[in-house]
Amino acid sequence: MPTSDDNFGNVWVIGASSGIGEGFARLIEDKCQNVAISARSSDKLEKIRSETEKLTPFPVDVTSAQAMTEAANTIEAQFGSIDLVVVCSGYWAVMRADQLDLKKMHTAMEINFFGAVNTVAAVVPGMKARKRGRIVIVSSVAGYRGLPQAAAYGPTKAALMNLAETLKIDLEPSGIDVSIVNPGFVDTPMTRTNKFTMPGMISVEEAAQSMLAGIRQKKFAVLFPFVFANTVRLANLVPNWLFFWGIRRMLRR
Ligand SMILES: NC(=O)c1ccc[n+]([C@@H]2O[C@H](COP(=O)([O-])OP(=O)(O)OC[C@H]3O[C@@H](n4cnc5c(N)ncnc54)[C@H](OP(=O)(O)O)[C@@H]3O)[C@@H](O)[C@H]2O)c1
Q1: CB-based burial of residue 226 (10 Å sphere; 0-12 exposed, 13-18 middle, 19+ buried)?
Q2: What is the pLDDT of residues 4-54, one digit of tens each?
Q3: Does the beta carbon of 15 sit less than 6 angstroms from any atom of ligand 1?
Q4: What is the pLDDT of residues 69-112, one digit of tens each?
Q5: How far apart are CA 222 and CA 148, in angstroms?
Q6: Where are the domains of the chain?
Q7: Terminus-to-terminus CA distance in the chain, angstroms?
Q8: Distance from Cα 219 to the centre of ligand 1, integer Å
Q9: What CATH architecture applies to the domain 10-252?
């Protein structure tokens, strides 16, 4: 269906059973024709539907390419199209590089990176046929540089940033727009167990509002909160010696 800044058409939010995805789905429900919400926990999705009828659950595991394609086909059959897909599914595990847990590292890559790849593979054929569509992938500022205890998580987010650039270049001629969202710390179930200081922490509502603003402005990279996210991004530009010196200082505190 035709879309505008005030109506995103038919939207598929993945990772919508909690946190940023749930917050974003709730925020945009009156700015869309239909909102499909996905995650593995069908009970949580059903609870959200019971509160806001516009959000329709389609439980799926992003690590299964086949299940993701089937889910996309079902949503398109029911709603007529997927005009905007937002990938918020994610997995986080604290991991130092001297205590690698290979199983968790594979899980992180399967959910964070291949989950997004499976989504793209599932929605692009329909979007190409309609010559329009938008793909939004939630990465993290943790993808800009290697950070302490992020051995499992950071590389998956760096891979997403790189993937999104290729997607934008290759899909633009087919009328498909791509954005990458790089949040700092957001107060969600994912961060609630962290024992370390999380500077610049914002609420889910603030994160969802910032995502919406960035998507409306058709930005390629959407960063928030402004100061913290851009400070981490700047770390990408400083020389390596200065980056590692800064990290050592931070760890000594
Ligand atoms: N919170 C932060 O500070 C922060 C910062 C930067 C980036 N991010 C990113 O933001 C995104 C959302 O995270 P969040 O903080 O909102 O965490 P969250 O509340 O834990 O949400 C994660 C979502 O992903 C879903 N999910 C996990 N594995 C899945 C799978 N295999 N298949 C389908 N869905 C799956 C979860 O639902 P089920 O368990 O029901 O499947 C849940 O809905 C993630 O990509 C995260 O890396 C978060």
Answers
A1: exposed
A2: 667 899 999 999 999 999 999 999 999 999 999 999 999 999 999 999 989
A3: yes
A4: 999 999 999 999 999 999 999 999 999 999 999 999 999 999 99
A5: 23
A6: 10-252
A7: 54
A8: 22
A9: 3-Layer(aba) Sandwich (3.40)
